[in-house]
């Protein structure tokens, strides 16, 4: 799943892929008004309603959801992936491009290398190199999945790019609905 924003309109994208071949099976992009302001750490309240609207239009129910955002690697230990997983009662993984909290040692440069993201003595995620010599992604438990399974499944969904195919397809679908010549407002 991913969200694109233009002013006060959210373009929520859900793309369902087959596994392990990662072929698109279903795809929905909905357009909804944004009803909650941007407040750091409370992104779920802004993005969940548009995402839920998109999920209701799917023809194929996913078994697992990879969210472009955080799970428990969140200052409140309950990010977008955790919220969405709880509401949908589905296994969810947070796969974020940036870190909200915690510390880590840089993983080796090889594909699949990882270290743990730690905060106050607690493991809150894995810092994973999905390709050789690329920036890391931050993987965390969303709901109903272990960190090892989240890391393994996310890596299995990466095919030559830093981000999993699920996230890449969802981002492209959401971006395609934003009117031309309008910069997308990235969600932090």
UniProtKB/TrEMBL annotation:
InterPro entries the UniProt entry points to: Endonuclease-V
Annotated compartments: Cytoplasm
Single GO biological process annotation from the record: DNA repair
Single GO MF annotation: RNA endonuclease activity producing 5'-phosphomonoesters, hydrolytic mechanism
UniProtKB keywords: Cytoplasm, Endonuclease, Hydrolase, Nuclease
Species, as recorded: Geodia barretti
Entry protein name: Endonuclease V
Matching HAMAP family: Endonuclease_5
Leader sequence segment: none
Record PANTHER family: ENDONUCLEASE V
GO CC terms in record: cytoplasm
NCBIfam families in the cross-refs: PRK11617.1 (NF008629)
